[in-house]
Amino acid sequence: MGYDIERFVGYVNEGLLCSICRDVLEDPLQAPCEHAFCTACIHGWLVHHSNCPEDRQVIDVSLLRPLYRYMKNDLNRLQLHCRNREYGCEMVCSLESIDRHERECEYSQIPCSNAGCTVQVERRNLDGHLAVCEYRSRECPNGCGYTILSAEDTQHNCVAELRTELELLRAEMICRVEEAKHEMESRLDSQRRHMVQKESILQNEIEELKSQMSRMMSDVRSLMAAERQHRQELEQAELEKREL
C-alpha cells in the first residue's frame, strides 16, 4: 500500500500515484508500459494476474524496474504531514526524509519497555510512564539483591527468596558434581581400557620375542653340534694323514 494522499501538502502529479491502490507510490516499481506501482501492490497483483492492471499488457516480475530517476526525484520532493499528526505532531517534511523523522518522532506510539506491560505511550511521555508503571522493577531496598516489580512489593520476602536461591544453587552444585563424577569415571574407564589393550599388545610382543629367542637358541645348538662334528672329521683326517 502507498502513502495516503490526504497526508500530502499541495498537488500530487497523477503519474506519482500507484495504479492499483491509487495512493502515492511507496517503494515504487515500473512496468515496461511505464505504469508505476507500489512494490507490495504489484507483487500482490501478479500472484493472481499476469498483466498490467491499467492497460492489460502482459508483464512479469522479472520485467519490473525501478522508477525513472526524474520521477523518483519528484516523488522524494513531495511534502507530507507526519503520520502522528492526529496525536499533535505538526512536522511537514519531504517524502525522502519522512521515515527518518517518524522513527524518531516524539509523538510516535511505542510500547512500554517493562516486561509484562502492554501499554503504549507517546515517545515523549515514556519516561513519565516508566516512573509509575506497575511493571517497573527495582532492587530490593532490604539489601537481598533481588530485582522486584512494584506489583510484587507486598509479596516479596527476602528470607524466602534467598532460601529458594540457596536450594537452587545447592541443586545446581549437586548436578555439576555428578556430571564431573561421571566424566571422571568415563575418563578412567577409557584409560583403563587403553592400558589393558596396551598390556595385551606388550604381552603378545613378549611372547613373539620368546619364540624368536627359542628359535635362535635352537639354531646355535645346531651350529655347535655341526662344528664339533666338523672338528672330529678334521682330527680323523689328520690321524689318517699321519698313518700314511
Automatic annotation (TrEMBL):
GO terms for molecular function: ligase activity; zinc ion binding. The keyword Nucleotide-binding does not apply. It comes from the Eukaryota. SMART domains: RING (SM00184). The keyword Zinc applies. Residues 101-144 form the TRAF-type domain. Residues 163-243 form a coiled coil. InterPro entries: Znf_RING (IPR001841), Znf_RING/FYVE/PHD (IPR013083), Znf_RING_CS (IPR017907), Znf_TRAF (IPR001293). PROSITE patterns: ZF_RING_1, ZF_RING_2, ZF_TRAF. This is RNF41 ligase. The gene is Rnf41.
